[in-house]
């Protein structure tokens, strides 16, 4: 996890992790920023959807999902999942281009994230691979195989 210093009041923490061809980002959503953030996401899926879609294609991102794990007191933790066809170069390039945007939409997006959370993509740490500590991949026929072994 990357903890920001004294001069960074809004973007309290961000945890970037590269997971194969995926990037996972998490950060705090203060209670007072939840509604403005929701409006921002509605704008992405509404009037700015075509620009957003073109931006993600240009950045090499093939899928993006965002969740909010809410707190009872309001706000919560945002979880953003990004997927790229060519993982490391595409995701690294996407973060680098958001740090120094050239396209108008990317500039608007970075400005909105900075206004909402104090996020400065230029200050994010280099994304590194995450260490897989536990996984449970259910495989087809696994249960059938155990039943036939027990017979």
Q: Secondary-structure map with pairings?
A:
Layout: E1 2-3, E2 13-14, E3 17-19, E4 22-29, H1 34-45, H2 49-58, E5 61-70, E6 76-84, H3 87-99, H4 104-117, H5 142-150
Antiparallel strand pairs: 1-2, 3-4, 4-6, 5-6
Characteristics:
151 residues, alpha+beta, Gyrase A, domain 2, four-stranded antiparallel sheet, two-stranded antiparallel sheet, 38% helix
Question: How would you sum up the major sheet?
Answer: 4 strands, antiparallel
Shape: globular
What is the CATH level 1 assignment?
Alpha Beta
Hey, roughly how much beta strand do the residues contain?
A: 15-25%
Q: In which range does the helix fraction lie?
A: 25-40%
Low-pLDDT parts are 1-12
Radius of gyration: 18 Å
- Extended strand count: 6
Distance between the termini: 49 Å
Number of domains: 1
Q: Calculate the mean pLDDT score and round it.
A: 76
Largest beta sheet: strand ordering:
3-4-6-5
Class by alpha and beta content: alpha+beta
Please give the count of helices. 5
CATH T-level fold name = Gyrase A, domain 2
The H/E string reads EEEEHHEEHHH
CATH architecture: 2-Layer Sandwich
Descriptive notes:
By secondary structure, this protein is of the alpha+beta class. It has a single domain, classed as Gyrase A, domain 2, CATH 3.30.1360. It contains five helices and six strands; from the N terminus they run ββββααββααα. The strands form two sheets. A four-stranded antiparallel beta sheet has the order 3-4-6-5. A two-stranded antiparallel sheet has the order 1-2. A hairpin with a 2-residue loop joins strand 3 and strand 4. The longest helix is centred in the C-terminal third of the chain and has 14 residues. The chain is globular and about 40 Å long. It starts with a strand and ends with a helix.
